[in-house]
Amino acid sequence: MIDIHCHILPGVDDGPVSIDESLLMAREAVKEGIKTIIATPHHKNNKYENTKNQILEKVRNFNKVLIKENIPLEILPGQENRIYGELIEDFQSEKILTLSNTNYLFIEFPSTHVPRYTEKLLYEIQTLGIIPIIVHPERNGELLKNPDIIYKLVKNGSLTQVTASSIAGYFGKSIQKFSGQLIEHNLTHFIASDAHNISNRTFKMAEAFKLIESAYGVDYTYIFSENSNSLIKGNNIIKEIPEAIRKKKFLGIFQ
Ligand code: FE
User: How far does the centroid of ligand 1 lie from the alpha carbon of residue 235, in Å?
Assistant: First the structure.
């Protein structure tokens, strides 16, 4: 299994504070059946900044430690970029890192809303040949209320990644329900852990895949694992035609 979103590097963000904590996460990941992780430290989320070269060096160092400790896990470089106005300038000045040196790039929205310039920025990113992947749309307050926004962004070429713990219900009922709707309406393309530790923000990848398989069948788990596989190789992923999520607003009146 491949986990494309994980805060596993020590001392870079709100993930593990020490190498020992990172190693605990690495061992837990292996136990879950994860063989490859893209390390995605926060960047520009108002608290943490981790630029391309800093991340590349930390990934190199951590892989050396994993080999020394005999942990069968490979770390690939990535970055979780909070959306901001100068993102494209920073990409061009080599501060921004794509996922595993491919054309896929993580974009995070603030948790409460979707900035006004989002549509324009995601369009401009694509004109550079970069494919934006919106992380955890199911945990965004505005998208929860107005899922049409995510439908439009996916229709216009963005991809999305849903968190394993959201599917497993650890972020509450409404986020779990919305995660299911995103899957059912072909509005998400990847499942990843966004793990930060081994206590309250852990992997839950095996649990999520089990739930997806029992609710939607093996076709879905196949697509999600294949997509992560294709992503790290920089290949095209499987995309079904996105559908709008219709809210049953008038149910009750017309029944
Ligand atoms: Fe994250």
Answer: 23
CA 42 / ligand 1 centre spacing (Å): 7
Tokens of 255: 């029944």
**pTM of structure:** 0.96
Tokens representing 230?
């294709």
Question: 83 alpha carbon to ligand 1 midpoint, in Å?
Answer: 13
Output the CA 212–ligand 1 centroid distance in Å.
21
Residue the block writes with tokens 């107005």: 146
pLDDT in tens, 131-188: 999 999 999 999 999 999 999 999 999 999 999 999 999 999 999 999 999 999 999 9
Counted residue by residue, the chain has a size of 255
Give the range of the structural domain holding residue 224, as residue numbers without chain letter.
2-254
Taking the C-alpha atoms of residue 3 and residue 75, their distance in angstroms, rounded to an integer, is 10
CA of 255 to the centre of ligand 1 (A): 42
CATH code: domain of residue 240 = 3.20.20.140
At residue 250 the predicted structure's pLDDT band, cuts being 50, 70 and 90, is low
What single string gives the DSSP state of each residue in 65-133? HHHHTT---EEEE--EEEP-TTHHHHHHTT----GGGSSEEEEE--SS---TTHHHHHHHHHHTT-EEE
| Contacts of 202 by beta carbon, 8 Å cutoff, 6+ apart | 28, 165, 193, 195
Q: How far does the centroid of ligand 1 lie from the alpha carbon of residue 120, in Å?
A: 23
Instruction: Give the environment of ion ligand 1: residues with CB less than 5 A.
Output: 80, 194
Distance 6 CA to ligand 1 centre (A): 6
As for how many domains the chain has, the answer is 1
Cα 19 to middle of ligand 1, angstroms: 19
